[in-house]
Amino acid sequence: MKKQDIINEVKNLESKYFDLVWYARSSPQNDHLKGSKVNRKRIEELHPEEVKSLIDGDNLDYDYGFYCGMLAGMRYVLSMAAYGKEDAEENFPFLST
Predict the structure, then answer these.
(1) Is the omega angle on the peptide bond into residue 28 within 30 degrees of 0, that is, cis?
(2) Which is nearest to 64 in space by CA: 73, 76, 55?
(3) Helices (H), the chain
(4) What is the predicted pLDDT for the residue at 10?
(5) Cβ–Cβ < 8 Å for 71, 17
(6) For labeling, which of 16, 21, 26, 84 is most exposed (least CB within 10 Å)?
(7) pLDDT confidence band for 32 (50 / 70 / 90)
(8) Would the pLDDT of 56 be above 90?
């Protein structure tokens, strides 16, 4: 596998975990905000099993923590690839959504 293929896969995972962390932090009470309801629906359709675990799973805190950790890890790898280890370590963990 080429380096760019690996980076592309990590980007895909970063996007997935960004969505899941955003979803966990969102609320139907905020669906009046522009794009919120549409984005929640998009994530529900893309990641139905993961969303289900965030809504009524047996380990809500674990699942949310796992998704946050994966988001931080994927961003660390992408930052290291683009800007170097020092920058990656300085910004780790970057969990803004």
Answers:
(1) no
(2) 55
(3) 3-25, 36-46, 48-56, 60-83, 85-91
(4) 95
(5) yes
(6) 84
(7) confident
(8) no
pLDDT of residue 44: 96
Residues 40, 82: Cα–Cα separation, whole Å: 30
- Amino acid identity of residue 56, one-letter, is D
Averaged pLDDT for residues 60-81? 94
What the block records as the tokens of 9 is 């896969």
Backbone angles phi, psi at 47, to 5 degrees: -135, 60
Sign of the Cα pseudo-torsion (56, 59, 63, 65, in order) = positive
Q: How far, in Å, CA of 72 to CA of 62, rounded?
A: 15
The string of DSSP codes covering 65-78 is HHHHHHHHHHHHHH
Distance CA 3, CA 59 (A): 35
